[in-house]
Amino acid sequence: MVQKQAEQNRISQFTPQGNLVFGNINSEGAFAPGTSQAASVVEESPFQQRYRMGGEDLALTAQNMAAPRIANLPTAPIDTTALPGFKSSVDWSTVSRIPTADDFSADATRMEDTTFKRAMGLLDPQFEKANRSLESSLATKGIPMGGEAYSGAYTDLRRSQDEARNKAAMDAVAAGRTEQGRLYGQALSSHQAGLGDQTTEAGLTNATRAQQVQEQQALRTGNLSEIGAMLGLNPVTPVEAKGFFSPTPVDVTGPYQLSQQAAIANNQAQSQNQNAWLQGLFGLGSAGAAAGIKYSDERLKENIKRVGETDGGEPLFKFNYKGDSTPEIGVMAQSLRKTNPGAVITMPSGYMAVDYDKVK
Fold first, then answer.
1. What is the per-residue pLDDT for 245?
2. Where are the domains of the chain?
């Protein structure tokens, strides 16, 4: 009963678009249409026939037009051979190296020397004038050279001159460190500018490359979409170009700041050591000066000439310190150490000083 019902539903159909024919398989394995089966035929109106045939003609024409365009499609999706190269790194050969404070230590030294010489060029005439005035005053009062009053007057004058000379040295050191910091900052800015130029150039190059890739992709997508439309296919969706980006600038702020802070701390330590040495060289401070302690090492002096002796028979010499034309009168530490070693002090700098309160 079910089989009979199925056979009744197998109606062969004949349409302009094709036929659906039911039948059986004969003994030779070939299809044999059933002659006793029901059949239906679809007949078109003249308009339907013309509409169908016109559509078929258009589809055939579109396929004939699409065929050569398909044959001429490029084998590679995108041709990147003529595009600018993708940049993802920095060419360090064109960027100046990261500076250090030591790079400008020689400049700092030159600035210190120039500043100190300029200051002493102003102070020396004042010192000479003060020395002549004091010498004239002591001579007028009849105070003998080498006496207690004579030495005390000159000690007070030398104390004030040592303080002025020491201040000039400190100012020179500060000027040198300022110049060193200025040059370091300029070099660091130059390095950062070079790195910024590299990053900007890489960003522009990669942006140009990405734009040209997208243009080629748009042209190819348009071509494929037209061919797909001719063939009745779905339009091609453009693929968004991704992965092209400007390289992120290298973060050097942290290392630069740490390097600069370390350099500044090192410079400050060097300045403190140098200041301490200069303070010992040009004067021992108020307490030392008040106690009569003064550098008297022969290695620090020049134009040495014996002019007399103390009440205790110690030789007195006239001289001037190297780098200072101001005449001085006093004993020589090397000579005094042989007769009165308790009056000679070896300073941390390695030079010897004399405690004049112990000189007889």
1. 45
2. 2-71, 101-283, 292-360
